[in-house]
Design brief:
Endonuclease III, domain 1; Endonuclease Iii, domain 2; 2 domains; 13 helices; mainly alpha
Length: 230
């Protein structure tokens, strides 16, 4: 019996071959704060801000040098900027002040891209979620992008398409997050993260999914798909 995933993920990989984040960044620390800023905000809007901001902000110390008030002003066009600037400033302080062992383990995370498979320098989800403003979704994105960790960060897009495609049968993103990684076959965990996000963001959208031009239409079990196919 053919597993539906053996059709879904090769197809999505062809649709979205660039399996990486849309967020612009040059350093791992920039990725961390960009992901924090992207909550309830589009990646496009975050990039508009960071394309200028990241000329100055590359490390935690740069944030401290700028100061929380000035940083808040710099990201004021982003939703929830007050709480985000507060969290990013506090996270920057903590990354600088954390005990020596933690800092040594994540030096490559803060200042430069890790080498492929450099697991010794990989922080854990617990490490990252101890930082202000960093939830499980943010931690999974960072670990996936920087270390190819087999995590799937579940946002509203991933939750929606995972249910429409029959990968899960859940009611909330939180429920999806708890089980999706155990459902996805090991060989597809790396590509699943971004391909599901992009498929939900650009094709299988919430209000007007492009079912009429969907290569997965024939195997998709979503009962409402015929409404959008003509």
């Amino acid at each position: 019996m053919i597993n539906i995933q053996d059709t879904i993920f090769p197809t999505l990989t062809k649709m979205y071959p660039n399996n990486t984040t849309d967020l612009h960044r040059r350093t791992p620390f920039q990725l961390l704060i960009a992901v924090i800023m992207s909550a309830q905000t589009t990646d496009v809007q975050v990039n508009k801000v960071t394309d200028t901001l990241f000329n100055t902000i590359q490390t935690p110390r740069d944030v401290i040098t700028m100061g929380e008030k000035k940083y808040n002003t710099a990201i004021s066009s982003i939703g929830l900027h007050n709480s985000k600037s507060r969290h990013i400033y506090a996270t920057s302080q903590l990354l600088i002040q954390l005990h020596k062992q933690w800092v040594e383990r994540v030096t490559s995370f803060v200042y430069k891209d890790p080498k492929p498979n450099a697991k010794d320098n990989q922080p854990t989800i617990t490490d990252l979620t101890s930082l202000p403003g960093v939830g499980i979704k943010t931690a999974k994105v960072v670990l996936h992008v920087l270390w190819d960790a087999p995590y799937i960060a579940v946002d509203t897009h991933v939750h929606r398409v995972s249910n429409r495609l029959g990968l899960v049968h859940t009611h909330t993103p939180e429920q999806t997050d708890k089980i999706l990684e155990s459902v996805i076959k090991p060989e597809y965990k790396y590509v699943a993260h971004h391909t599901l996000i992009f498929f939900g963001r650009y094709h299988c959208t919430a209000r007007r999914p492009a079912c009429d031009a969907c290569p997965l239409y024939d195997i998709c079990p979503w009962p409402q798909k015929s409404k959008y196919h003509w």
